[in-house]
Design brief:
With about 80 residues, the protein is mostly helical. It has a domain at about 25-79. The protein has helices at about 5-15, 25-45, 50-79. It is elongated.
Length: about 80
């Protein structure tokens, strides 16, 4: 039978009792903000015209933003 490790129990209690923090302080926030700024710049440069290259680049950037957010959520789930 495995006895609970006191250090592990203390770490779990600290995580449960810790303030959640401000999401704006998480590093992923700035990363995603920069990616979305680039998406907006592409949209502004193209205007109302359809540009397949620009749309493709925006899709790549949005995928990167999604992946960064998904990774951050996975990290939270592991914590």
């Amino acid at each position: 039978m495995n006895a609970p490790n006191p250090a592990a129990l203390a770490a779990q209690a600290a995580r449960r009792n810790a303030d959640p923090g401000d999401p704006d302080d998480h590093p992923v926030t700035e990363t995603v903000r920069e990616i979305l700024d680039e998406v907006s710049q592409i949209r502004d440069a193209v205007g109302d015209e359809f540009d397949l290259g620009a749309t493709s680049r925006q899709a790549e950037l949005l995928t990167r933003a999604h992946d960064a957010l998904a990774d951050a959520l996975e990290d939270v789930g592991r914590g």
